[in-house]
Amino acid sequence: MSGKFKKELNLMDLTLSAIGLIIGAGIYSIIGISAKHAKNFTWLSVILCCIFAICTGLSYAELGVMFNNNGGEHLFAKEAFNETLADIVAIFVFIGEILLLNTVAFGLGNYLSAFVPLKIPILAGIALLLSSYLNYSGIRNSINFNNLATILEITGLVLISILGLFNINQKLFDVSKINTKSMFDISIGSAFLYFAFFGFDILVELIEETKNVEENLPKALIYGVGVSSLLYLGVTISALSAIGWKKLSESKSPMVDIATKLFNGNMGFIVMIIAIISMSNTLLMGNVGSSRFIQNISKDKKFPFNLHSIDENTNTPKNAIILITIITMLGLLFGNLENIATATNVFTIIVFFIVNIAVISLRIKKPDHARPFKIPWNINNIPISSLIGASSSILFIIILLKYKLF
Q1: What is d(CA 78, CA 372) in angstroms, rounded to the nearest whole number?
Q2: Among residues 310, 314, 328, which one has the least CA distance to residue 121?
Q3: 199, 231, 235, 327: which could form a disulfide with 22 (CB 3.0–4.6 Å)?
Q4: Which 3 state secondary structure label does DSSP give 9?
Q5: What own/partner pairs with CB < 8 Å and gap ≥ 24 does 163-168 have?
């Protein structure tokens, strides 16, 4: 049952996987938390976050095709530094992925509670179980669901963004009101959104199932982050103009409230369904990525329970999926959505920092190593984008720790 994964995924599959996971993790569940802090300047939080995310995405692209392996961040740290740091990174990645699943599950539970009279943690748990089963059923089933769900949600968000262009509140762009405190608040809002871009991590965990990975992975990362960034910005401006930052920050289902206002009450139910499908898809793809990560690490670390094995019938890492399901279910006891989001961000940003530093380290240690994709814009062979990505990670960690501890 150890086996190998089959290469079934193409450029479109990878790109839609990145977009689906990034959008579902933030627009439907975290954008309200960001607005709570950045208020009318949440759109600036989005821009700041997207710039930093693009820089880190380029680092993932270079490293991913250098090693052509599902090991992801663990492998990057091992090659750039040492086994001990790589193991620590693997723990951070694992915790970050579990917390991401819990964050989205709680957000999905909020939406489902409008239809089903059950407590949010129970609804979140049911959703997690269903996503795990679909993951087990086969990568093509998971990807087909992702592709359809992502196209549907992109369509809905584009409509909201376009309609919002006709109702823009010009006061949102009065940057003369920005002061030191508001800059800090904007940074907090950006830091909360940043973890959503952990979605491009899914791509380096699907490398062994991707066709022509050296060409498709970098393109998918760039396209995925680029499209997601534009959607985040358009929807945020529409949201702030339509319902204002206060209602956005208090809403349990912000996209529904925005659509209800923009479409005069005629689209609220439809957007609710799209939001549920979108967040369900994020749960699914997060489950897919984290199970592949555990399966790959297990091959190297010889973990018990045959976590490295691949099911002969479905060609999926069944035992790793079971482990992820059990741990994420236990994670529902962690607390409320904002607490989970804060913890997720800290772990995610630490990982982003190490990935960016790994690129810099390998440029110095292994300058002649084959790089099918090489980040442009360098100073003495050091990528400017990786320097920006690493610096932004330090900034966000400081901000989040200050926000929660002082």
Answers
A1: 20
A2: 328
A3: 199
A4: strand
A5: 163/238, 163/262, 163/263, 164/234, 164/235, 164/237, 164/238, 164/239, 164/241, 164/242, 164/262, 165/234, 165/238, 167/238, 167/241, 167/242, 167/262, 168/237, 168/241
Q: How many angstroms separate the CA atoms of 211 and 286, rounded?
A: 21
| Every domain of the chain and the residues it spans | 11-405
**Are the C-beta atoms of residues 160 and 315 closer than 8 Å to each other?**
no
| Tokens read off for 320 | 């790793």
Q: Which helix (H) or strand (E) holds 154?
A: helix 139-165
What single-letter amino acid sits at 56? Answer: T
Q: How many helices (H) and strands (E) does the chain have?
A: 16, 2
Question: Is the CB of residue 139 less than 8 Å from the CB of residue 209?
Answer: yes
CA-based nearest residue to 220, from 206, 236, 241 = 206
Q: What is the pTM of this model?
A: 0.87
Distance CA 23, CA 333 (A): 25
Phi, psi of 260 (to 5 degrees): -60, -40
DSSP codes, 266-316: SSHHHHHHHHHHHHHHHHHHHHHHHHHHHHHHHHHHT-STTTT---TTT-S
Q: What is the pLDDT of residues 325-363, one digit of tens each?
A: 999 888 777 655 556 666 667 778 888 999 999 999 999
Domain 11-405 of CATH type 1.20.1740.10: yes
**What pLDDT digit, counting tens, does each position of 173-212 carry?**
888 888 888 898 999 889 888 877 777 778 888 999 999 9
Q: Roughly how many angstroms between the first and final C-alpha of the chain, as a whole number?
A: 51
* pLDDT tens-digit series, residues 11-21: 999 999 999 88
Judged by DSSP in three states, 383 sits in strand
The tokens for 260 are 């209800």
